Amino acid sequence: MISEPRTKGPLVIRTALPSEAAAITELHVRARSTYYPDGLPFGDVDWVAAWRGSIERPEAHVLCAVRDGHLVGIASFRTADDAPADTVKLFQLHVDPDRWRQGIGRALHTACLEQWRADGKRTATLDVHVDNARAQAFYARQGWVPDPENPPAEGDHHLFLRYAVTGE
Prior knowledge:
Blueprint: E1 11-15, H1 21-33, H2 47-56, E2 61-67, E3 70-78, E4 87-95, H3 104-118, E5 123-129, H4 133-142, E6 145-146, E7 158-164
Parallel strand pairs: 4-5
Antiparallel strand pairs: 1-2, 2-3, 3-4, 5-7, 6-7
């Protein structure tokens, strides 16, 4: 049973703070557990340190969606080390499973787009787990398409998607 209202105050999207790395990790694990029924891979990763590193990385962006003082969604992106300067990679976009279907993911996606446009990015990429049908449907609704330059390899567990970032 949810002890607080599902929607109440306004949704605020802002830059994450290093002190929020543990809360971000908890949300990340809850969201990813929905499509890894046998447990999360990379169990030996210190996710709190990894998230803190992403937050503190100068060329990266980590956004938080907050409602009524509660972290309800996260997104992280940057230009990958081997990518062209006008391409950005969406590494993570997660919404607390208790808050699905409230427009939080769409609002985070919109905030990402605004930043990509401000940064002069022309293309965005991401990879999504093949078993995460919910995320695949979400990205398709936002306009993401299979990346023709990066088809899935035999036995790969990820689909690679691309988004044309426009100024419109």
